[in-house]
Amino acid sequence: MWFLGAVLGAILAGSIHFSLAIAGALVGGVLAWRLSARGQSAEVDRLTAIEAQLARLESRLQRLEQGPLAPTAIAGQGGSQEALAEAGADSRSTPMPPATEALPVDEPIPVHVAATPEMPLAAREAEGPLFDVPASRASTVGPPPPTASPARPPTPPAEAAAPLWDQMLRGNLMARAGVVVLFFGVAFLLKYTYQHVQVPIELRLAAVALAAVVLLAIGWRLRLTREGYGLALQGGGVGLLYLTIFGALRLFELLPAGPAFALLLAVAALSAVLAVLQDSRALAVLGASGGFLAPILASTGAGSHVALFSYYAVLNGGILAIAWFKSWRVLNVTGFVFTFGIATVWGVLRYSPDVYATTEPFLVLFFLMYVAIPVLFSRREAGRVERYLDTTLVFGVPLISFGLQVGLVRGFAYGSALSALALGAFYLVLARALWARRGEGLRLLVEAFLALGMVFTTLAIPLAFDGRWTSAAWALEGAAIVWVGVRQQRLLARLFGILLQLLGGFFYLDDLHQPVGAWPVLNSVYLGALLLAVAGLFCAWLLQRWRHELRPAERWLAPALFAWGVAWWVFGGLHEIDQHVRLALQRNAALAFFTGSCLAFSGLARRLAWPAARYPALALMPLMGLIALGTAARDAHPFAHLGYLVWPLAFAVHLILLRRHEVVGNRWREWLHAGGLWLLVALGAWEVSWAIDTWVAGRAAWPLIAWALVPGALLVLLALRGERIAWPVVAHRRAYLVTGAIPPALFLAGWFVLSNVVSNGDPWPLPYLPLLNPLDLAQLGALLAVAIWFVEVRRLGLPPLASAPLSAAWGLAGAAGFFWSNGALLRTLHHWADVPLRLPDLMASELVQASLSLFWTLLALGAMLIATRRSRRPLWLVGAGLMAVVVGKLFLIDLSNVGTIARIVSFLGVGVLMLVIGYLAPVPPKREERGAACD
């Protein structure tokens, strides 16, 4: 078989260029050897099992013959006669080698069943006796002879699979090589005699035919005594008959087409009958190979492709007839390789559109033949699940046939698409018919045909709109091969299917620079990426579902393929948005795409029990954050360009997905809840600020105030009404009241400081009133919102705020109040006294300095009065410190304003207030002194 493959490879490669003949011979020989080895796998496995069983039986026999006979095992033991009787029954069912010397009838048969330390009696009884001893004579069995039987040499273990070189050389190599050389010699002889010898061509052909008949007769006579040699001669005779008939038809035109093909049909039938009668795969392969090589060797280069393909149709008809009786996979693959290999070479070198009408019928005929052959193979092999699907023909035939068909219909509009649609419909109908007739008997084949039907039907869509069929076909074909590899537990099939998908992706990227179709979605760019994504995700799900049947080294392939499929899904969607959606709408279109995708993956996770699909489903919130960043860089507000529809939908789906995939105690999902709250606060504050800014045309402090409304309102809502929202707030209390609320609270604190520094508090169109203007009220509201939230979190005992010291909280509150009141004072002086709100102007203003001195003194008075009344010594010390600052300010800053009313007022006012403080708010006693006074 390998030699014929080498010959065919040399011929086919040499027909393209003479220098390629050696490479073609090497490739053809390796492929033919591989096919032959796979065809012999069943016989090798069966022979190995038989040899292993024989080795076990001989080992048992050897152990029984080596041990001496135990008297207690023969005489005087209960049940010994029954054991010997059972031994006789077992021995009759097991063929034994003939004895070298007959035993006398009246002599006892030595049965060596003694118990030995190496083999207990119970174990030997379980092994079963080997000699038939009648029960009536069991008591007469005497002791064994003093000399034990010689031990047989141990049987070598079953032979391992032969290496490549041994498999090439096994069998009658000289006979096979001689037949091939003779075959070539006859072909060359015909050409030489035709050119140089004047003997009538009829006689020469008759002589060759007679020699072929002689070879057949000799081979038939030797079929029993020299089987391998006889089969080789018969194969050579069949090949010579093929060569003679074809030469008479094509080279010398001695036979009309009708009688010639009748003779070819007869030779094919003869070869098939001989192969079937002798159960010889080799003869079948030799005959078929000779038949396929005959027209190539006898060709002059000017023949008709119709005659060639008609001749090959006859040969394939013979192979189909043999397939009806025998499941010879090597013969089927040989015919497939010859037929489609030669057809491919002819198509590359000789095909032109004007011969379409005479070429297409042969392609359809060959396709139907090699679809029927694996059906017959599976029908005969049904029951042996691991072997009865011929994946080479089941998947190779449609792939090669469709590739040839694309070449034939390249000049027709939508030719590839219609061909794919017809091929898909054919496989779907065939799957339905096989299931109706055979049911579970051909379930795997039916599922394979159903997968192919779906693949080609789906492939028709991108082919109808653009021409990237290679990547899509390879991806889907790879998915189908992975499926078969999983079902049949074949590692190479799984790896090959994954490799096909990767190659399909690389082909897709290589063709990406081609023009994109005008139709959105219905173009090959998007549909190609969609098919790559579907194939990758299907394989990921398949490997995850059958992960317990895979090898440990394969289990990382499922997440890798899942990431591959998700990447193609995202790429296809974003590329489609970039090509067909105007720029202003692209970000919101991407958000809608991601929202729908996450919802779809969530459905897959629930329906298919697919844990990996939950990860992209729960990735919506990070994707929303990325799109929000892009929107902030380009758009005026988040609800622009249909954002008022997309963003609410995205937040609703975000909550639905969190609810659907709820897991208690999962920390990273707690972060998803908190992140959704942060994003809602940010987008809400941005949208409200933009709306107010648009309403007031950018004037006054209203836009700045708007940034605090949404965060403050959400903090108050969570603090006062959060306990009434069972899900998600109560179910995830820490996520919403601590992790989710701290950033809005910090934002309000930062906004509070910033608004006091940068804004003058202009309330246009309202008049400015101290403490009652919008900015002062908003700042006070922000402080109250943070305080309410802080109190509620401490009441609920949520860490870490529950353990924070109250003194620190009161200190921050006091500092915030001091900062807010000073800002209100300065803004009042700005609006009522026209003092510019710039630091140099404020430092140089006598009115501002005097007002600050008196105001700080009043604040210190209030603090010290409260401290005295409530015995809060730390608070009194804070007030005293503030008074110290005021005194320092009087002498360092206010004293420089010589001769001004402001300096006089500030000194007099501060002095009077200090006297009041000294009278009304003396320093409170220390805690120890207060406790002693109480005692």
Explain this structure.
The protein is mostly helical and 935 residues long. It contains 38 helices and no strands. The protein is elongated, with a radius of gyration of 48 Å.
Radius of gyration equals 48 Å
- The percentage of residues in β strands lies in under 5%
N→C terminal distance: 116 Å
**Biggest sheet overview:** none
Which outline best applies? elongated
What order do the helices and strands come in, and which of them pair?
Blueprint lengths: L1 H15 L4 H19 L1 H26 L4 H4 L5 H13 L28 H7 L36 H6 L3 H24 L4 H21 L5 H25 L5 H22 L2 H17 L7 H21 L3 H22 L5 H26 L9 H18 L6 H24 L4 H23 L3 H19 L3 H20 L13 H22 L11 H24 L5 H22 L6 H4 L2 H15 L8 H18 L6 H29 L6 H20 L4 H5 L2 H7 L2 H17 L15 H23 L9 H28 L5 H6 L1 H25 L2 H20 L8 H20 L6 H8 L1
Helix pairs in contact: 1-2, 2-14, 8-9, 8-10, 9-10, 10-11, 10-12, 11-12, 11-13, 12-13, 12-14, 13-14, 13-15, 14-15, 14-16, 15-16, 16-17, 17-18, 18-19, 18-21, 19-20, 19-21, 20-21, 21-22, 22-23, 23-25, 23-26, 25-27, 26-27, 27-28, 27-30, 28-31, 28-32, 31-32, 31-33, 32-33, 33-35, 35-36, 35-37, 36-37
